[in-house]
Amino acid sequence: MKSFYLTDAGKVRDHNEDSVIIVKNNGEDYLMAIADGMGGHSAGEVASSIAISYLGKHFKDTFLNMSKVDAVNWIRDSVDEINTLIFQYERNHPESKGMGTTLVMAVLTKDYLLFGNVGDSSGFVMKDEKLHKVTYDHTLVNLLVSAGELTKEEASVHPKKNVLMKALGASLEVDVDVFDCDMGITEVLLSSDGLTNMLDSDQIEKVLLGEGDVSDKVVRLIQKANNRGGTDNISVAYLILEKEGEAQ
Amino acid sequence: MITKGQTINDRYEIIRSIGEGGMANVYLGYDTILDRNVAIKVLRGDLSNDEKFVRRFQREALSASSLAHPNIVEMYDVGEDNGLYYIVMEYIEGKTLKQLLKKRGSLTLSEAIDIMLQLTDGMAHAHDSYIIHRDLKPQNIMIKDDGQIKITDFGIAMALNSTQLTQTNSVMGSVHYLPPEQASGKGCTTKSDIYSMGIIFYELLSGSLPFKGDNAVEIALKHMRDPLPSLREDNPAIPQSIENIILKSTAKNPKNRYDDAKSMHDDLLTALDDDRINEEVYQYKYPEHESETTRRIKKLEEKEANGDLDSTDDIATKVEREEDQKKNVIIIILGVVFGLLVLALIGIFFIVPKIRNSKPVVVPSCNGIKVSQCEQKLQKLGLEVNTEIMSIPSTEIEKNKVVKTDPEEGRNIKPGTLVTIYKSSGEETFKIEDYTGKNYIEIQTILETKYELKVTVEKKDPADTTQEYDNQEIIGQSLAAGSEVKKGDSITLYIPNLVDSFPNMSEEGWNLEDAEAFCKKYGLIISVKYEETTLYEEGKVISQSRAAGTPIIKGKTLEVTIAKKPVPKPEEDSSEQIDNENGTSE
To answer: How many C-beta neighbours within 10 Å does residue B9 have?
Structure first.
C-alpha cells in the first residue's frame, strides 16, 4: 500500500477549511477521509477538523476485524456522532452558528472497500486503468440533472451549483450514503470540490495514469487545479493498492 | 465577533443582535451622529476575506442604496471597519410577513391586496432602476403596525447569486419562492421577482405554500413542472380576477408573466372592479413548457452517452439501511397481530350473543312523536331509556318532539341496551354579533356560507363625519347584536358612502388649495383658470368643468375657475399676473 494526502488553500482564499486524513489501524485496514467545512468566523475549519479528528481516533480505537455489515454500521454511527458533536460545539460557541461540513470517507480492508458520503466531496476508484466516480454529490444541480431537468453542461455553469442539499451540522438527522465497492480496484482517490470544480474526471484520470509516484501525482493534481484558478481549498487523499503477495 | 456596546467606525453603537443569516448577522445599532436607531448588517468573517466578494457586496449595496421608496428599506451607509464589512439601514419596528402569517394563518382579501399593492409598487421602483431582488419571500418583507410594508435584503441577495462568488459551499435555503428559470440556471430577470410575488400572494390568501415536498429538490421540481394548485377550489369566495393575477405572475414560462411589476400593480388596482366580477380564467399565450419533450429526450440520450463515467452501478452498489428490512418484519408481525384481533372481534360480536341466547329487538320509529310516547315504546320492548334527553336543532321536526334515537331506528339490539332519545330544539338559531368596524366582505362571506343568511350591503353616510372610514368597513347593521336569526333570514350591512363623485366646489366655498388637494387625492389633473370678479372672494372656486355629482374618473383633467380681484389700472396688470402665478404654481 502506498498512500499520500495533501491539502492546499488554493489561490483565492487565505485560509483552509478542508481537513484530510489517511490512517491505518493495528490490523491491515485503512481509513481515508476528507471534510470540507463551511461557516463564518473560522467555523468551517472547526467543523471539518471535528469530523476528521473524531474519525481518525475512533477508527484506531474501535475498528478491528469488522465484518462488512458491522463496518457499514460503523460508518453510519460515526457520521451521526460527528453531526452531534458539531451541534454541541455550536451550542457552546454561538458565534459559529451555521457551521457545517461535507464528509467523504473510504474504509478499505482485505475483504471489502466501503465509501461513505455526505455533501459534494468526491470518492473515486481506479479499475482496469479507468477512473470511476463512486459517490453521488448532494447538490441541488446534481439532483436536478438526475431528474432530467438539467443537462451536465447547464449544471456546470449553474449559479447555484455549489448549493448543498445535505451536510453535517445542517440538520439533526443526517443520512449518509454508503457504497459497497467491487474488489479488483487498484487505486482509491478522495477529493474536495476544489479539485473537481477545476478538473474533470478525464483530466484527473490522466494525471493518475501518468508518470511519478503517489505523492508526485497528488502534488500535480493540486498544481493543475491552482493553474485553473484555484478558487477554493483543494484536498486530495490518494491510495494505491499493492498487488497480492507484494509485501509493502 | 461583534459584541454589545462596540462602536463601528466611531459612529454606530451596537445595541443587540436581531438576526443571524447565512451570510451576514444583523444588529440593532444606534447612530450617534444622527441620533437614531439603525439596523446594521455585518458580513460574516469568512466572506470578508474574499476580495472579489467584498467588492461586489459593496457595489451592490450602493446601487440598492440609490432606491428611495416608502416600501423599500432605506440604505444609509456602506463601509468597512477593521475588516468588518457592514451596511447600515433603516431600522424597522414590526414583524416579517412570515411571522404575521404564522400568527394569523391566512389574511383577508383586502389585506392581501393592500400588501401586494405596496409590494408591487416598491418592486416597480426597483425594476425601474434595473435592480432585481432575486430572493423575495415573506421573510424578507417587514410589515409595520400601521400596515406599511418594507422590502429588505436587496443587495446581499444579488451579490450572492453571481456565479464567480458561489465557489464556496452553502446549504440550500428556501426554495419555496424559487422561479423555475432560476432552478434551471437561466439568468434572473425582473420576471423572476414577479414569479416570487405571485407565490407570496398565493401564500397570503391561502396561508400555505403552493408547492410542498420532503426536500428542496422535490419542491424545485414542482416549481418547474406542476401547475399551481387552484386557490378557488379551496376558497370559492376568492374572485377569479384575483386568481388570474396569481396565475399570470406564476407562469412557468417567463413570457407568460406580467412584463413588469408596474403592470401587476395596475392589474391589482382594478381586480375588484365591478366589470371584472365574471372574468374568465387566464389563458397563457405561449406554451408553458417550451419544446418539453425534445428537451427531455435530449437529456436522456445525453445521460446514456455519458453514463459510463458517473454511474456507479458496475463498480459499487449503494448500501441501503437495514431498517427497511426490519420494517418489513415489523409489518409482518403487525399483520399477524391484526389478523388475530379481527378473529377475536368476530367472536365477540357474532358468537358471544348467540351463547347469551337473548333475542335481539328492532329499535322502533319514534320520529315526530312525543318524548313520553317514545319512552313507553322503548320500554315495552325491554330497552333501557337514558333519563337524560338530548336536544338537537331540526328544521323538519316540531319543537320538543323526538328527532331520533341512539341506537338508530331499525337497528337490531339486545334487550336491556341503553337508548338515548333526541328531541327537537326547533330550528337552528344563532345570535348576531356586533360587526361594526369589521371588513364587510369577510362578514358577508361568513354569514352567507356558514349561516345561509341573505346579506345585502348598502352604502350609508356615516353618522360621525369626523372619523375616517375604510370603504370596506362596516358602520352599521340592520339587526342589533344579540338578535336571534335562522337560515334564510335577511340582514343588511352598512358601509360608508365615501365621496366618489365631484362635490359642488363653489357652493361649498372651496379655495384653490382645497381643489388642488382634492385632485391630488383622486389622481386628477388640475387646470386653473382665473377670472376677474368681485362676486367671489379672491382665491375661491367660481366654477368647475365637471358637474357636481358626476363620478370621479382617475387621470382626467378638471378645470377650475378661480376668482381674482379686478385690477383697475392696466399698467399694473402684468406684475399682478406674475405675482398670482407665483402664488399658485407651488
So the answer is: 13
- Please state the φ and ψ torsions of residue A105, each to the nearest 5 degrees: -145, 155
B170, B185, B316 ranked by CB distance to A159: nearest: B185
Q: How far is B177 from chain A (nearest CA, A)?
A: 15
What CATH number matches the domain at B7-90, 3.40.190.80, 3.40.50.10350, 3.30.200.20, 3.30.1310.20?
Answer: 3.30.200.20
Task: Report pLDDT digits (tens) over B492-544.
Answer: 888 877 656 788 888 888 888 888 888 888 788 888 888 888 888 888 888 88
pLDDT tens for B229-286 read: 999 988 888 999 999 999 999 999 999 999 999 999 999 999 998 888 888 888 888 8
> Under CATH, domain A2-240 is a member of which superfamily?
PPM-type phosphatase domain (3.60.40.10)
Sheet containing strand B95-96, edge to edge, reads: B95-96, B141-143, B149-151
CA atoms of A232 and A38, how far apart (whole Å): 12
Question: Domain extents for chain B?
Answer: 7-90, 95-164+174-276, 429-496, 512-584
B184 contacts on A by Cβ (under 8 Å): 144, 149-150, 154
CA–CA distance, B433 with B295 (Å, rounded to integer): 59
Model confidence, pTM? 0.57
Residues of B involved in catalysis = 135
- The CATH-assigned architecture of domain B429-496 is 2-Layer Sandwich (3.30)
Q: Which residues of chain B are within 8 Å of residue A144 when distances are taken between CB atoms? A: 183-184, 217, 220-221
What ipTM describes this predicted complex?
0.74
CB contact under 8 A, B316 and A36: no
Mean pLDDT of chain B: 79
Q: What is the C-alpha to C-alpha distance for residues A23 and A239, in angstroms, rounded to an integer? A: 11
Grid coordinates of B218: 422535490
Report the CATH number of the B512-584 domain.
Answer: 3.30.10.20
A234 lies within 8 A of chain B by CB: no
**Cα of B205 to nearest chain A Cα, Å:** 29
The CA distance from A231 to the nearest CA of chain B, in Å, is 7
Whether B165 has its CB under 8 Å from any CB of chain A: the answer is no
